[in-house]
Amino acid sequence: MDYSTYEVYDFDHVSAFNMSTGYKERNYQSHWHSYGEILLVGPGSTNIYSIGKNKYDLVTDDIVIVWPMEMHSIVDADRSEALVVQFSNAFMNSLFDLRRIMHMYRNLHIICINAHPELAAKLKKIILNMKEIFFSERQDREIRCCMHLMEFMLTLLDYRKELAPELNDDDNYGYADDVMKRMITVTDYIKNNLTADDLSQGAMAEMAGISRDYFSRIFKNVTGMNYSKWLNMIRLEKATELLAEEGRTLTEVAMLSGFQSIPSFNRVFREEKGMPPGEYRSLFVGNGK
Hints:
The structure is a single chain. This protein is of the alpha+beta class. The chain is built from 13 helices and 10 strands. Strand 5 and strand 6 (54-57) form a beta hairpin. It folds into 2 domains: 5-167, Sandwich (Jelly Rolls); 177-287, Homeodomain-like (Arc Repressor Mutant, subunit A).
């Protein structure tokens, strides 16, 4: 099986936005990176993409969303006319509302034109507007493209009720901004303090100033997964970053990512990535990353 390598593009460090098209290759190996991607599927009888453990057989004008740090690949697709938007994770995390949207839609990856024709058409129009601006000579093209990126995310938010079944979300429009800000504060705290002594759901509910049951329900609606699952995903996200660095032992990676033991680290990593962390690290060594 062709596993992932970590991709590094200069734009991620100097720009919030990038766009590309015109690829001749029909496939691309499994990989991940710190930025997100939006793909407008091009014409062709075969368009198969993979995200995480799921494989999607798509049609022209379907839209693919790959959030930062997610494994994905192009299995077989005509990419000559497909459009790829790449957006910085730092940009998404710079605004409360963008962070909130990214939390809400973390488990949404495909907008099918047949299932959501109106939404897909609106999103396609936004992407084409990005294309027109990005490939122009405008000096302000980055900020204008980012404005359209925000419009893209807000359009997703406008259609949350329609997308609710795919999000496993029974509470369509959620909660007041005050509650959401508390939740974002908690999730930011967790991301920045993975080695803290107590990251239990009860402790985080207390930090948010709400009951444990209410916290659990909000968390599932906002992130699309239960608290334990989400916490493991954030720990794995940190672990994959550390595995790309030289000089750290696997034990150090596990501890710095908040795992309490090597066996639990290995188990969770294998379940989600399809291989043990040592094998995953060897990909970087072999590729000089």
